[in-house]
Amino acid sequence: MKNVAHLIGLKDLSKEQIIQLLERAEYWAARPTEQADILRGRFVANLFFEASTRTRFSFEVAQKRLGAHVLNFIPETSSTVKGETVYDTIRTLEAMGVEAAVIRTKKEGLLQELAESVDLKLINAGDGTNEHPTQCLLDLLTMKRQFGKLSGLTVAIIGDLRHSRVLGSHLHALPKLGVNLLLSGPATMMPAHIPQGVKIVEMEEAVQTADVVMMLRVQLERHAESLYLSKEEYHKAHGLTLDRAKMMKSGAVIMHPAPVNRGVEIHTDLVECETSLIQTQVTNGVAARMAVLETLLKGSEMTWESSLATATY
Known about the structure:
Layout lengths: L14 H15 L13 E6 L5 H12 L3 E5 L12 H10 L4 E6 L4 H6 L5 E7 L5 H15 L6 E5 L6 H12 L3 E5 L14 E2 L2 H7 L2 E4 L15 H8 L3 H4 L7 E3 L22 H21 L15
């Protein structure tokens, strides 16, 4: 990771770089209350141009646990309402000594554009329907801690695939790590491009064969048209119902990047059931984001080295 200036997407990272981040995330996950001064005196800004609960607060907790000074940008009270561009906002923060910016935006490719002309570290907290790399990393961390490995697992991602930036990152990361990826969902919600080796299957096959059943929220805010099914009809046709959950094989788990639409993509009784790792994902989000922040901001000074023990992944 020493040669990586930003975390814009997992598409840009090698298998070894992803594993290095996961190894450091595992370090922090094993120390859930530890405070550090690794980023003491460093300034990090969170710029969220879209609503967020888990990602925004998870980053802030991660930043503060590492000892950083945190600036939370509020678009409604900033100069962006006067017409200032995001580029000029970033340059302003840079001039003040801010060293990293965590950005969530509706505009796909914005961080890539900014990366070509700014010096501070950029971390993608979700751009449009493109990628959400830290969500993917925390998902991978959750799977690794649950199963002890990633390679050889079968993961089914089900739901609104076309509009999911979480899927955008998993499409790049899971195949690199030797994971068998299955996709299932309404035909109208399929992604435009599916990498070679990724299989599209029916809902029942996905649920019955996967080690991880990952449900996705129907993102109505990104649909140009209204959902052609009612919430009840969607749940019956494409949701993880109680009956479908009974089809899951022994040892399989339920995941969801959240927020959850209870009774739509997943039955409310399954959100916190014994096989659900949804809250565990939230917990692991802090560790994954600590690993990203630490690696990007302290990369040239890091004293730890990744073993790159790919056999365990």
